[in-house]
Amino acid sequence: MMAKGRNQRLRFKRRRTAETDYHRRSRMLRGGLPRAVVRLSNTQVTCQLVSYENAGDKVISTITGKTLVDKHKWPGDASRKSVPACYLAGFALAREAISIGHNEAILDIGLAASSRGNRAYSALKGMVDAGLEIPHSEEVLPSDDRINGEHISDSISKAVQVTKKSIEGGN
Fold first, then answer.
1. Which of 49, 62, 41 is nearest to 119 (CA)?
2. What is the pTM of this model?
């Protein structure tokens, strides 16, 4: 409902347009840890490590589906937002974060739906497997078969292994 009248106060614009849950954001920022942000677009996954500063959020590191293709040998014709691609993006982000001195974070999936085994939790599993400490429950993580791409095709399974080795060798 839109605020009308001189004694009513408008909510923040990002709240009115359902882009930000300020209560959830406030709880995440209280811990002082950087946020491991996972966002899915229509074409690719984006994983970022973001820290809070008074002047505004500072992006420490970013890995996207395009980065996987350009730097880490992910096949160009494969989906950049699939469960395996999300896992590898999370894995690459964590490797990069650890190499620059960040060992722990908190997961931020924004306003995305939270269901067991979804793509955001696939990225979380990649971050945890790479050594980043993120509080989570094992119940939400997808199965190893889905992460390896066995539900898609054998070529994706092989691509996951090649890309993972490329990421491990790069850092």
1. 41
2. 0.88
